Each structure stands twice: as structure tokens, then as C-alpha cells.
UniProtKB/TrEMBL annotation:
Gene3D superfamilies: Spore Coat Polysaccharide Biosynthesis Protein SpsA, Chain A (3.90.550.10)
Record keywords, A-Z: Endoplasmic reticulum, Glycosyltransferase, Membrane, Signal-anchor, Transferase, Transmembrane, Transmembrane helix
Pfam families membership: Glycos_transf_2, GtrA_DPMS_TM
Biased composition (Pro residues): 437-447
Domain annotation GtrA/DPMS transmembrane: ranges: 295-412
Top-level taxon: Bacteria
Pathway note: Protein modification; protein glycosylation
Stretches with biased composition (Low complexity): 448-457
UniProt keyword Repeat present: no
Family as reported in the entry's similarity comment: Belongs to the glycosyltransferase 2 family.
Protein name in UniProt: dolichyl-phosphate beta-glucosyltransferase
Organism: Streptomyces drozdowiczii
Length: 478
């Protein structure tokens, strides 16, 4: 059974059962096929995909054609497929952009697992079930097909191979991305994750995939990769130079936002832990283990930084002055690092107050270390430099324990423990960006039309929708 969690965290992942749709008759999987002027390839794609899912997929499914501003006969083909095939729906948007199409359809879908694939079906469909299985089981939050995995089999030209690998190197070097293939048109996401993650994604074009994955990875969400067999479409209409330029602009924008902490990624955190046995553990403060690890890492680096500064300042000053200067500089850096990395405080709000409180903690540490040096001087008169360092290390260890306690309880108190949703109220779906003034939860997803009764095995029999309901105009649903 799902447990209640604070408004700032995602609920624990649950295994999805066969009837786990969000509304009566809703499918477990919604596969979106974004298209623009694909009147030739759309029908063979949907027929092949529908046949494969009906034959191999063990859950109820839906195929959604997301037509984003096509000017040819694509809308007519999509409507015809929606009328003739059970479990096929058509959406019409009046603006271009693959990211815009995916965001719109995924936001309004009632299926608990959302996926998409390119209309050319370059990816072998046998990878579809392995792609969504970790999401259905509750193991992962997102899943991507990878053409760059060792066991993948790919047929494409040298130019596209070079561009793909060069782009992957750029992502790894600039955004520290660890996933192997950002732009393979074969991805899936759990709906509760999409509801919180998509509002943070700004791009509406081809960079949408990369931005979504980078933010998810930085937030600590679990991304599952599936090696795929992939055959390049020689008739692809993607403009490589323009797409690459827009991608590089996106990399710069996302990198800058991450550097200044402008994104509330902490609201994508999962509770500890997803295992029901872990949820029964009581008396453990939330995030304590992670904070201890982060504080120890920051503390170790700060200590090395402090000792280097002390040795440098000691060349031209006495031990007390060198200790005070080194401790002051390292304390400012330590507070900033712990604020961002250990306690997850992002943005500039409260930074000055945090530094002022950090200086109070610094004063306590200064008293401990200075007192230790004074006691050493009184005891031995003229101690060696190595003896000074050893005494300072011991004093700093004691000051470090006190610093962590003060940081956790006073400087960066855990407000989530006081803001946990009551047991009788569900947690908010996607709060606002200000943790002290969360925005109201978004409206529930608008369900798709009911399934066609001609497919009783895949979807429950309900009255068939009117023909005019097979296509939905989402011009105002962006």
C-alpha cells in the first residue's frame, strides 16, 4: 500500500497491475507517435505498432498520434486510424515542436506509463516491452533506448554516427550526464514523474529529450537503459545543423540553471525507501544518512583547504592570525558547499542569512581551535609546526561534529518534517517553486476518450465515443 509522503517528494513507486489505469477503462501504457507531415509513413507505422502490441503486450495499451501542425493529409490519416482501430487516438496541435507535442499529450494522458517513438519505427519493436517493464514493476522512473550501448546493433551513416557520439561527449563533459543516448526516439516515463518533471522542461523541440533526462538524473531519479537494434531512416527530414545549434543553446541554458541552483530538483526526490519494509522503519530523521555523507565529504575537502590556507598564511603571520584567516575563508566556502550539496538548498533566497549563521558556527569553531593552540603554547612553549597541525586536526574534528548539529538544527532546518501531508490528505502533485508558498496542485489529467468496445481483451467494453471525439484540439492546452 502506498504511504503518504511530504509534499516535496514523489510517492514511492508501486508495481502496476493490469487494471492500474487512472480512470475506468484507462490503459496501462500510452504510446505517443509525434508526427509532422507524415501522411506517407503514418498508417504503416500505426498498423505495425498496433499489431505488435496486440500480439505481445500483456497490458491494456493506447496509441496516440500527436499531430503537431501538419499541413498535408496527416490529420485525415490520423482520424481514419482512430476510427478504425481500437485503442488508437489522435491529437491535433496547431504549433510545431516534438517537445511541445509530447508535453501536451503526456500531461493530459490518464495512463500510468507514458512512452513515445518516432514514426519511422527505426527502433526494433521487440525492445518496447523491456523498455516499459521497469516502469510497470516500479523499479525505475524513466527508461530510454540506447543506440550507443555495447550490445546495441545500429545501421546508420558515418556522419550521423559521428554527430551522435560527439553530442554524447558534449553532454558528459558539460552537464556531467551519465546516460548514453539522449536523442534516441524511444523513451518512457511514469506519469507521476512526468507531472512534476515536465513543468521544469522549457524546450519544445528536439532538445526536450535531453533536458528532461538531465534534470531527472540530477534529481536522482532512476533511468533505465535498454540496448536497441536501430536502422537509420534515409528519408529523415531532421535538419541536422539547425537541430545541433538549438541543442547547444539548450546545453548552455540548462547548465547555467543547474549552476545557480535555479531548479527545484529536490521536489523530484523519492522517499527512503520504496521497499515497504523500509517504510516501516521509525525514529530515523529523513535524509540523515545522505546528509551525513555529504557533510563528511564537504568537511574533508574543507579541512584540506583550511590546512593549505593555514600553511600558506603561516609563512607571513603568527599561528593565531594564520588560523583565524584560514578558518574564516574555509568557513565561508564550507557553508556555501553544505548549503547546496548537503542540505539541498537551491537559489539565492536566504543565502546571506545562512552565511551569517555560518559565521556564528565559525566563531564557535574558532574558539575551539584557538583555545587548543593557546593550550598547546602554554604547555610546550614553542611547539613544532607538525605538532600544531596535529592539535588543529583534533580540534577541528570536535568542531566538525558540533558544526553538523548546528547546521542541521539551526542553519538549515529540515522543514519537510513539519510540512508533511496529513494522512487524510494526498500530497500535492507539483508544488510551486517557492517552498514556503507552494502552488496548488495541478488539475487531474484529462482522460482520453473511452476505449472502443470492439477490443474487450485489451480494454473494458464501454460505449463507443462519438466520431467527433476521435480528434482533440489542444491549441489552448499548452
Amino acid at each position: 500500500m502506498r504511504t503518504e509522503t511530504p509534499w516535496s517528494t514523489l510517492p514511492a513507486r508501486d508495481h502496476l497491475l493490469a487494471g492500474a489505469g487512472g480512470a475506468a477503462g484507462a490503459p496501462v501504457l500510452d504510446v505517443v507517435v509525434p508526427v509532422y507531415n507524415e501522411e506517407k509513413d503514418l498508417e504503416p507505422c500505426v498498423l505495425r505498432l498496433h499489431e505488435h502490441l496486440a500480439r505481445t503486450f500483456p497490458y491494456a495499451f493506447r496509441i496516440t498520434v500527436a499531430d503537431n501542425a501538419s499541413t498535408d493529409r496527416t490529420p485525415e490519416v490520423a482520424e481514419r486510424l482512430a476510427r478504425s482501430l481500437p485503442g488508437v487516438r489522435s491529437f491535433r496541435l496547431e504549433e510545431k515542436g516534438r517537445g511541445r507535442a509530447l508535453r501536451t499529450v503526456w500531461t493530459h494522458s490518464d495512463a500510468p506509463v507514458l512512452a513515445y517513438m518516432d514514426v519511422d519505427l527505426s527502433t526494433d519493436l521487440n525492445a518496447l516491452l523491456p523498455l516499459v517493464a521497469p516502469l510497470i514493476s516500479g523499479h525505475s522512473d524513466l527508461a530510454i533506448g540506447s543506440r550507443l550501448a555495447r550490445s546495441s546493433r545500429v545501421v546508420r551513416g558515418t556522419k550521423r554516427e559521428f554527430i551522435s557520439r560527439a553530442y554524447n561527449i558534449i553532454l558528459r563533459s558539460s552537464l556531467a550526464a551519465r546516460f548514453s543516448d539522449a536523442q534516441c526516439g524511444f523513451k518512457a516515463i511514469r506519469r507521476e514523474v512526468a507531472q512534476r518533471l515536465l513543468p521544469m522542461v522549457e524546450d519544445t523541440g528536439w532538445f526536450f529529450d535531453t533536458e528532461m533526462l538531465v534534470l531527472a538524473e540530477r534529481a536522482g531519479l532512476r533511468i533505465h537503459e535498454v540496448p536497441v537494434d536501430w536502422v537509420d531512416d534515409p528519408d529523415s527530414t531532421v535538419h541536422i545543423v539547425r537541430t545541433a545549434t538549438e541543442d547547444l543553446k539548450g546545453v548552455w541554458r540548462v547548465g547555467r540553471a543547474l549552476a545557480v541552483g535555479a531548479l527545484p530538483l529536490d521536489r523530484l526526490a523519492r522517499p527512503f525507501g520504496d521497499d515497504p519494509r523500509d517504510r516501516a522503519i521509525g525514529g530515523v530523521p529523513g535524509g540523515l544518512a545522505r546528509q551525513l555523507v555529504g557533510f563528511c565529504v564537504v568537511g574533508a575537502l574543507s579541512t584540506l583547504f583550511y590546512l593549505a590556507l593555514y600553511s600558506l598564511f603561516r609563512l607571513g603571520a603568527g599561528p593565531q592570525l594564520a588560523n583565524g584567516a584560514a578558518l574564516l575563508v574555509s568557513a565561508v566556502a564550507n557553508t556555501a558547499a553544505n548549503r547546496r550539496l548537503t542540505f539541498g538548498v537551491r537559489g539565492r533566497g536566504g543565502a546571506v542569512r545562512h552565511q551569517a549563521q555560518g559565521l556564528v558556527v565559525f566563531a564557535i569553531g574558532l574558539a575551539l581551535t584557538s583555545g587548543s593552540l593557546a593550550a598547546l603554547g602554554a604547555a610546550s612553549g614553542s611547539p613544532s609546526h607538525s605538532t600544531e597541525l596535529a592539535v588543529l586536526i583534533a580540534a577541528n574534528l570536535a568542531a566538525t561534529v558540533l558544526r553538523f548539529l548546528l547546521f542541521r538544527a539551526w542553519v538549515f532546518p529540515d522543514r519537510e518534517r513539519g510540512n508533511a501531508a496529513p494522512a487524510s490528505e494526498p500530497a500535492a502533485t507539483f508544488p510551486g517553486t517557492d517552498p514556503e508558498n507552494p502552488a496548488p496542485a495541478p488539475a487531474p489529467a484529462v482522460p482520453f476518450p473511452a476505449a472502443d468496445p470492439a477490443n474487450p481483451v485489451r480494454e473494458p467494453a464501454v460505449p463507443a465515443p462519438h466520431a467527433t471525439e476521435t480528434t482533440h484540439d489542444l491549441r489552448n492546452a499548452r
